[in-house]
C-alpha cells in the first residue's frame, strides 16, 4: 500500500495541497480495501491486487475534475454516523455538525418533537434522533430524490425520523394544531453573486437548488420558515438556523420582527457567525409583515 499511496500523491499533487492529499488517500484506501485505520497500518507493506489499483485510478481521475470525494465514494461521515450522499443532496459540513451539537446540548432534556425543514440527506434530524430521546422527529424537503436518500439514511442508521414532501412556501395538509418543540433548518443562503468566489467542487457538482438564493432577497427562506414557526412552534419552543456568515445581524432582526425572544447568534469553530436561535416566549406573537416572497 505504500506504493499506492505514492501514486495517489503524485497523481493529485498538481491540484490538491499535501494535507488534503493525505486525507483523500486515507479515505480512498479505506473505501477500496475495507480496512479501518489500524488494519491499514498493519497491512501498509502489502501490495494491492490489480483490480483495486484500477478502482483507485478511476477515483483519482474523477478527483482531478474537482468532483467531491464524498460523491465519488457515495458516502460521508457526519456526527459519528455514516450517510449516503449523491449529487441530489448537499455534502454535510462541519459547521452543520456544530449546529446539531448545539441543539442536542440545549434541547435534549425537554424536547419531545423536532422538525427539520429542507432536510437534504437527513443528516440533521437523524444525528439528533440518534443522540437524544426526542420522541417525534420529522424531516421535510421539496426534492423527491433527496427524500429517497434521506429515507435510506434513516434505515442505514436505524433512525425513526419520518421524511415527507413539503414546500415551506406553500405548506399543505398541516393541521394548525400540529406543533413541534424545535424547528431547525439549514436552508439555501448563498447569494448568486458569491458563486464566483466559491470552490469549483461545490459550484460544479452540488445541487444549486439547495445552495443559492436571489441576490435581492437572501432571507427568503428564513422569512418563510419563521412565519411557519409562529403557528407551529410550541410555547417555549426554539427555532434554529444555519446562516450565511454575512447575514447574522439581518437574520437576528428578522426573528425579532416575528416576535422571537432570547435570540442568540453563535460562531463556529472558525470564528464565523454561522448559527442563530430564537425562542417562543409568549402566547401572543407579534407577526411581522409577509414581505417579498419571490
Characterization of this structure:
The structure is a single chain. The protein has helices spanning 2-12, 18-33, 37-42, 50-63, 69-73, 94-107, 123-130, 144-156, 200-203, 220-232, 248-257, and strands at residues 75-78, 81-84, 113-117, 136-141, 162-165, 180-185, 190-191, 212-213, 233-242, 261-267, 273-279. The protein has 294 residues and is α/β, with parallel strands linked by helices. The chain folds into two domains: 2-64; 79-279, Vaccinia Virus protein VP39 (Rossmann fold, 3-Layer(aba) Sandwich). The strands form three sheets. A seven-stranded mixed beta sheet has the order 5-4-3-6-9-11-10, sandwiched between helices. Helix 1 (2-12) crosses helix 2, helix 2 crosses helix 4 and helix 6 crosses helix 7.
Q: Please give the number of β-strands.
A: 11
The assigned CATH architecture of the largest domain is 3-Layer(aba) Sandwich
CATH C-level class of the largest domain is Alpha Beta
The amount of helix comes to: 25-40%
CATH homologous superfamily title of the largest domain? Vaccinia Virus protein VP39
Characterize the largest beta sheet: strand count, sense, and whether it forms a barrel: 7 strands, mixed
Strand-pairing-aware structural class? alpha/beta
- General shape: elongated
CATH topology of the largest domain: Rossmann fold
| Uncertain ranges | 288-294
**How much strand?**
15-25%
Count of structural domains:
2
- If you compute it from the alpha carbons, what radius of gyration comes out, rounded to the nearest whole angstrom? 21 Å
Number of helix segments? 11
- Write out the strand line-up for the largest beta sheet, numbering strands in chain order: 5-4-3-6-9-11-10
Mean pLDDT, as a whole number?
91
